[in-house]
What does this fold into?
Amino acid sequence: MSENSDPHVATPTLQGEKFVYDFTEGNKDLKHLLGGKGANLAEMTNLGLPVPPGFTITTEACNIYLDSGAEPAALRDEVSAHLDALEQKMAKRLGQADDPLLVSVRSGAKFSMPGMMDTVLNVGLSDASVAGLAAQAGDERFAWDSYRRLIQMFGKTVLGVDGELFEEALEEAKRAKNAATDVDLETADLKKLVERFKKIVSREAGRDFPQDPREQMDLAIRAVFESWNTDRAKLYRRQERIPGDLGTAVTICSMVFGNLGPDSGTGVAFTRDPASGHQGVYGDYLQNAQGEDVVAGIRNTVALAELEQIDKKSYDQLMGIMETLETHYRDLCDIEFTIERGQLWMLQTRVGKRTAGAAFRIATQLVDQGLIDEAEALQRVNGAQLAQLMFPRFDENAKRQLLGRGIAASPGAAVGKAVFDSYTAIKWSRSGEKVILIRRETNPDDLDGMIAAEGILTSRGGKTSHAAVVARGMGKTCVCGAEELEVDTKSRRLTADGTVIEEGDVVSIDGSTGKVYLGEVPVVPSPVVEYFEGRMHAGADDADELVEAVHRIMAYADRRRRLRVRANADNAEDALRARRFGAQGIGLCRTEHMFLGERRGMVEKLILADTDDEREEALGALLPLQKKDFIELFEAMDGLPVTVRLLDPPLHEFLPDITELSVRVALAEARKDHNENDLRLLQAVHKLHEQNPMLGLRGVRLGLVIPGLFAMQVRAIAEAAAERKNAKGDPRPEIMIPLVGTVQELEIVRDEAEQVIAEVERATGVELKLALGTMIELPRAALTAGQIAEAAEFFSFGTNDLTQTVWGFSRDDVEASFFTAYLEKGIFGVSPFETIDRDGVGALVRSAAEAGRATRPGLKLGVCGEHGGDPESVQFFHEVGLDYVSCSPFRIPVARLEAGRAAASSAGSDSR
It folds into this structure.
């Protein structure tokens, strides 16, 4: 195709800008420019490893194309220059008839996105050159097999033809030949298949398959660029929180062929087991195949260890290269390779995705080997992985019916209803059903369903198949290659040794053993949770190596972290559990939880009291109950701070439902059975009814409107602390006033609280040092933090309410209504209630922290919203300079780990 006929108008290029790099020019540190694939091919080339020659088009060229719809003006000339150099190096020209050079055109972003973008192999083959390839290889069948692969891949990827049409044609050809696999098709069969594929392209694409090899390459390059913005790629980026503006590089690599007969093949290898972290020989190998056959899972592979018997020379060379790469990258490496008639070629390497358990084991192994230090080990794991390890596992002692066994690809215990396509998985999941997605093999189009499912089960593929790689990356339970299970997606059923599982039947899959069970298998606590609970001790004979690895990583984190970690706990039981999990105090005790159940009526009487006597009576009844609660809490957390938030919830939570009460009164009136108390109550509820209770009479406002309420709570705290001190305890209560919007509110409550504390000190003879502070959970409080700090000894950011008031929406309402649409459209990368909104809510936290400490340099700062246990948010709170985070007891280990990681990361940045 000439440049004049190109429909894409070239865009101007900045002088001196370079868009194409030879493999000899790059290195692994240029992932932002060359993508992971191109950068690592360059690195392996620099290391002297056997890499087929090639070059990489940069992510900058991709972004220009995506932004303008046209390639940079200089790109075609740069590609031509590098193609000329490649042809000279290989002593053959792209697609020439007698001895054709063929190339692969492959995607490769900065961050690994397995299977999400496009690749085209065998570019350069045509009607004119297929005979030349056959002569060059001495194998006519191989040439026609390669040609049908190109047309199939090019038709689907570049021309947008439905891939099922090619698959159906291939299946028909196999049935006609009674062939079990495509390898059993002979040359004549493949020639017929090529003609049929070309007709499919012509009919479906509205044009013939291109015979010009350069046109093939140019169109393939554009298709790879455009694959960055496919729905599946965008969905994967949102799932993995990969920025959408990075773009993909395009790697052009001279083809080497694994489908040249039994002395050829292709495979994927890991330097350690990505599922367990154990050292050894892990991977898959497929004789007489091209690379896509392995990751697609369309033919079952053999274990990599069997390569030693098939081709010992290549096996030994591969083992040496694997050791070189792991030592060089100082991490688990994922390697793609091809053997062409006994010659080993390296096609890709990257730091491999791994399961959570493998991540912890590998990090400590590499420390022991001296390849990394403790600070680096902390960067090799994260809080999300630790949370995965705390999930339950199947009870080994429970009765269960084994359906079959596959490859343990990604661990976990997943139970759900069997579904056989992504659409059903999504639909049922949104209806609240837990599902297991069952396929012969997955492909990138199944990503939505994989995300929706509890786990994935396939009858084909291995540890390096698409299902396995993507599931590990997402932390999903996955069992692959369960060959004894017959999956019929059209009939929506699974057959296992005569047992038929219809869609909707419950199955359980164990990603740690590869076992598949009929029905629901009970689960038991994770050994990691037992370790944190103190029921399993690291170093003990019965402690497994995973617990030992977690123990070591947590020790690294605790030694390095600056942020302290407290718990959100409202009773002694939760406080004791939190302490076992490593909590360094309580950052949020919600006193409203102490008023539920039987005590609710007492609060109702207080709120509806008409006279001072009624109010005093209600307060007097509540005081000893509150005091008892606090004594138990201070005992459980003896020697550690306990931040008690005074009553905060909206008023309606303590009042009868207005609709139910109205119906009750109406029915009583109809029966002429009037209840004076209900009538009085209804009048009061009508009077206090609010259209938006979350922004109504609650928090400090309630304490100011109902005389004595906060004073009673402060007295209970002070008397409990005094009693605990007299018992030789060490209580450290802190009193927190909620929902403050102006310093005047805080000053009034503080004055009253100080008077009460002084009275208790005089009455008990015990000196009390009770810190008084506030929650920063309203934008006005954050914006006037400098003023508020004059009356507060500490701030605790209530990021749940702060997020609601900054964004102007109610969490209880919007998460179920439009959050899904916002996530799908990319407006949210993640819910702002899950991870702190750095640009909005986070900016207020940062400015309030700075303003507060400017007024009061010793101001203690913490956070007690749910963000306190979110890994990414903890990193932000470290950056801002908070003193502690507070979270639910179960999230404490996660927060401890992330606080250590944040400190190690910032120390590394400072040293650099």
